[in-house]
Fold:
Amino acid sequence: MPHHAARTAGQAPQTAGRTIHAARWYDLAAWLCSFGREPSIRRRTVELAGIREGESVLDVGCGTGTLTLAAKRRAGAGAVRGIDASPEMVQVARDKAARQGVEVDFQVALIEDLPFPDASFDVVLSSLMLHHLPDDLKRRGFLEIRRVLKQGGRLVAVDLSGANGIMGAVMRLMGHRFEEDYIGRLRTMAEESGLADIESGTVSAGLAYVRGYAGKE
Structure:
């Protein structure tokens, strides 16, 4: 599990953990752990977000940028950004975008300290990242997401739905711990942050989503 250490202004966040420093192998690991379903999972996430041409999108915990680039294809001329705590992941994402000739802004940053003004984005995405964080950082992250969402904007967070099934067994072998009613707890945190109309559902076997909207202040 990664964790964040203190940093001073102008410095990249100091992180530790196996996943965030294994950027070179991350895409292969994601493909294997999803049993080849990663492309369909990314497409489903983008569909759940309802991204439209010209919308601004932030991918929090973007990893190597696969979901961010899928969002950019939907947003077209809209500004799309990805942030991750790992400089290694961000560099892989930048290289991937350059190879594809896609203009996406990737930068090193933390979910609990998003470097963007209030009401900057129509959509915020998070995929398979929140379960890495302790609850206090989850709550701070949700507050930051709510802050940067425009009125009527939406969050779609995809994460592990539990320990059952093949994917759950694989994740346990990788050291992931599953909390009771984890998705329900994410819903509660999203609601506590000020997001409204919270809903959840299945993305695929072993994965679920939480979706919420930024209403009026």
The CA atoms of residues 187 and 210 lie 6 Å apart. The two ends are 35 Å apart (CA to CA). Strands lie at 3-5, 14-16, 57-60, 80-84, 105-108, 121-127, 149-160, 196-204, 207-213. Residues 1-19 have pLDDT under 50 and may be disordered.
